[in-house]
């Protein structure tokens, strides 16, 4: 250090003092503290800290004392974690001030920071369309159009943001329910077309089914979903991000089969390929079941499930690996004990390892259909071990998934409450 006197320096951070030798500051892990070593004048020092006492050689930093204490633990031991009961973003600001980055955090805290930052960016994008409080007085040219687009975006994306958004969400839910009722009713024998029709009858039936009440209702629902999807695409800020969102992909999967089936009906006509096309049409019509997932846009429970699966994909992969390893072991042993050994009591259900895999799955999940079961004593002992092992293996990742589910639920509920407060203000106005 080229400024100040004394063999040591004192850092006063929020009232807590830390004493260091001059040589330690030269290669100090915190970039802001290490800058003190190269200061040549008091002006240079005041650019780094908030105040300086020449007599005691003490540098004052008006920062969070407890956060700096955790940062000092990282300097000493190499592990950086969040302060309990402190906002992750506030602690991250302290890290940036002292010259640290998010990569210095432990892995678990990095995930918490990423989730909080993504959530906060969503809030800012939805709640500060005019650029903060300073943008309220003066609006740049085109601000009225931007404000209208932002209101439209919130109306279609956030069902609790306004009265119009709630009405739109209610109508969308009604269309989903009606389409699901029609889909279920179309599988009834009274509604289903006979399979033994000739090609001409099948062609006439396919052409006339659109004019039936169920076909008209289906067309109206598809028209509503298509219009809703197009409007949401038009008012979206980032078109590429809109296409990549999971809920929007589900909307496309629910809408596209209808138009494909209509095109196939138009182009096949009385062609000899009509029977093959009829099977394809039935598959495409059954894909309308994806409409149920559209309800996730309006219900926190389904959103929580999707967000939990997204955040816990590592735990889900770990669970899948557990099941696959156990399935490989128990299926091979069961096939050996029931059919592989020449004991005079061969069980034909366990003729191969792939066939035994089905028994392992239904046993580990404690479903037990009873369609196949071991008949030898060693096989039954192995079955008991398989059931107990399945219970243990399935229970191991549940704790992590449960805590993530609770956290996701509270985050989404908090977000919904913020929009509900804006809805209440709209009612009062």
From TrEMBL:
Domain of life: Eukaryota
Keywords of the record: Cell membrane, Cytoplasm, Ion channel, Ion transport, Membrane, Potassium, Potassium channel, Potassium transport, Transmembrane, Transmembrane helix, Transport, Voltage-gated channel
Any GO CC annotation of this UniProt entry: cytoplasm
Membrane topology: Multi-pass membrane protein
Predominant cellular place of this UniProt entry's protein: membrane
Subcellular location field: Cell membrane; Cytoplasm
GO biological processes: action potential; protein homooligomerization; regulation of potassium ion transport
Pfam family, one: Ion_trans
Annotated signal sequence range: none
SMART domains (UniProt xref): BTB
InterPro entries: BTB/POZ_dom, Ion_trans_dom, K_chnl_volt-dep_Kv, K_chnl_volt-dep_Kv5/Kv9, SKP1/BTB/POZ_sf, T1-type_BTB, VG_K_chnl, Volt_channel_dom_sf
Annotated ranges, domain BTB: 7-116
A single MF term (Gene Ontology): potassium channel regulator activity
Family annotation (SUPFAM superfamilies): POZ domain, Voltage-gated potassium channels
Transmembrane stretches, start-end: 163-188, 215-235, 247-269, 289-309, 316-337, 349-369, 381-405
Subunit record text: Heterotetramer with KCNB1. Does not form homomultimers.
Family assignment from sequence similarity: Belongs to the potassium channel family. G (TC 1.A.1.2) subfamily. Kv6.3/KCNG3 sub-subfamily.
Protein name as it appears in the record: Voltage-gated potassium channel regulatory subunit KCNG3
The organism of origin for this protein: Gymnorhina tibicen (Australian magpie)
